[in-house]
Fold:
Amino acid sequence: MEAIEVSNLTKRYDSFTAVDSISFKVEEGEIFGFLGPNGSGKSTTIRMLTGIIKPDKGTAVIMGHDIKKDAIRAKQVMGVVPEMSNAYVELSAWNNLMLMGELYGVPKKDREERAKKLLEQFGLYDRKESPARGFSKGMKQRLILCMALINQPSVLILDEPTSGLDVESSRLIKDVIKELNRAGTTIFLTTHNMEDASQLCERIAIINRGVIAAIDRPEVLKRASSSLQSIELSFNRIVNAEDLSKFSCVKQVKKLGDKFRLYVDDVDLTMDCIMGYARSHNLKIVALNTLAPSLEDIFVSLTHKNKPGED
Amino acid sequence: MYQLEQLQRSFVVAKKDVWIYYAKGPVMVFGLIFPLFLLIAFTIGRNMTVEELFPGLMGMAIFFTSTAVGPAILPWEARSKTLERLVSSPVEVWALLMGDVFASFVFGLLISLIPLVVAVLMGVEVVHLLVFGLGMILATICFASLGILLSVYPPTDVPATVMMLSSLVRFPLVFISGVFIPVEEMPTWARTIASASPLTYFIDLARYSTNGISYYSLPTDLAVLAVFTLLFLVVSIKLHERFLPQRLS
Structure:
């Protein structure tokens, strides 16, 4: 069964289409990344998936429950960390968890056991009686994640879970996401951090201007973008970048300190050119690396492709 | 079973509201002092007995306490970034709003018991205690529901805006509801206006409870309060469902 099944989901605000008939599926037990620049429709999609706003068209089904027709059942199996969210700062960490547990109908004994375990797991147990007002941003985000997990959700939806966090909190949250996924929880997350997406996600979708620009496994996306392959090289002497740009298969040359990065169509052919150039100019190659495109390269390439005024 | 489950969750919302918004010294002091000051301001020098003051005092106490915080809860939640989390939990909008109504109800009722006890100690005799108790409960729910309705528009996250606009509704209502002049002593046009305010019917009922005299019949007072309650609840739920996404954007 698909954990999340989205079909032709559309949201309009007057004449502006924030999300334009998007469709995708997330398998049970998968970590699925949903990437896109600001204003691309990421948060609107998440708000529709979590039942906060109603789609104008299309359906979203969470663990078999249609978010439009059976919103409460769908919400019951979800844990949500909205992008702009906070714990109740007047309440202690413990009371925040008790409140969420009660809202999800978790029996008292279970919610107390789970709250204790979660607070220990997230390193907050020592501060359980402290009001959340005194917590750092990282501690608050860990508490919000605890709140999202108190109902032991089958699907965890995270909107920018590590945004603006310190290294320790960010790493802890990523470790917990991996651990939860190993235990069978489906994770749907948005992030601006390409490194996080690359490390965590089994598949990613890139949304741009309300439509899905690409959807696949990160490595497949990287391989598919052969036009973004590059070679990084350094010689033992300074050379003219213009010489390198004359190679037939080199599209662009960037000078990076004492190195050059050549964006190429054909790696093999370029290597031959480089060797020939080195021999003819009596140069030694100090370093040479072939680089696959990073997820960031793919993201930038896809999200800038259709910008008005750009090719 | 499903509705009962949702109702239980609305009590959880009410408990949260009481913890966060009501159980605070300044809110309680405001609930106690404000109606009293207003009453003193409008009765001083008019040589009225405690019995004559009682219906108006109780009316204002219940009205102001049960509408004091309710209108600001949703804007507060939106401002402090807790609303989106709350709305994404498995709680229907009606249950969420009922939670806010319950919290306002409990606060309004408990605080209003204090002027009631003081009035009784000062010699006011509530002859029809059961009728008064029923009216007090009904009126508190009615005004708490009005408080939730007052927070609908604009769908802002600025509590001060909502409170200012709600004051524009609440204060005129006090002046047209027979708090200071009994309805039967009003000119016809004023009586017509007074009949549009739910507070009029509670004050009328409170007068009946102490001296047996009322302008409307007792069933009318109770029925109109019940109809206003239902109306406020239905309209506020429908409108909040419509405007809630705008408050979150």
